[in-house]
Amino acid sequence: MDSISYKTLSANKNTVNKAWVFIDADAQVLGRLVSNAARIIRGKHKPNFTPHVDCGDNVIIINADKIRLTGKKWDKKRYVSHTGYPGGQKFITPRQLKAKSSTRIIEHAVKGMLPKNRLGRKLFNNLFVYAGKTHPHAAQQPKEIKLEK
Question: Among 113, 115, 120, 134, which Cα is nearest to 38's?
């Protein structure tokens, strides 16, 4: 028998093929969009997925300002942050966060779905979120991924 069939192939940064993909967030539900984006960034859709290696693709998300949240989440959901000082706990709703920057909602959700370690911080750099329809990554020739609406 061929001995290669018994070997488990493990990807490393030299053997990984990283592609560029983009997702249109127009009328997409936040959680469903972001879980698919995090899976692609992590590389779990590839047959040579290796948990400790950045083997995912670069993801561009356009139309972040047209994202949807179900139910009453625009006003009831709260993002919590802390300044580090006593009494420095701050709360902000998605509606208020969208008024500041519509890309932050998607970035926050994707960051929460990535590993909380050095690899997760490195993987987060593979995400590019834009509020409008245009993006500056045309030279990378990204492929569009269609998600169900």
Answer: 113
